[in-house]
Amino acid sequence: APFPDGSFRIVATIDNAPEHPSLQDVQALVDARGPEARGSVVREVIWSSRFRVHHRLAKSYRSGRFFLMGDAAHVHSPAGGQGMNTGLVDAVFLGRSLASVVRGERPESALDAYEQMRRPAAAQVLQLAGMLTRIATMRSASQRAVRNAVLSLFRVLPPARRKLLMNLSGLGRKSLAVVPGRV
Prior knowledge:
By secondary structure, the chain is mainly α.
């Protein structure tokens, strides 16, 4: 992914990846899987690491007086950048629900709505993050060519780009951001 300063973030699946891929490792990856027409040269690796992507969703968000939210309730690939937003909405939803119960405005059973609303929202985020990870880490040259052609359309179609960005931010799917007391 390109950044305004001209640097790029590169994410790829690599069998037996070194703990900290070197400039030579990254260049070999770009040579093997990068944009074939450009002949890109890696000049510097600012930071590198390997990581394992996990996609997990807690079976339950509540057990009596104990609640899970954020990364304790759901973990997924950073693709799409929705982890923090999802956790923040979890916190706001649960906080408002707890406050209304503590103030006596709602019965304790109202806390069950937290899991009923937030778990499906997190499941959607996990599904999207998984799909984006698979798209970003395609190994087949023909699949990457199709992916790159489709992605290039977003540069020339501003409405499509806006819709994609709204969905990636979580702002395009209002059902994922429902909190008590808000319409």
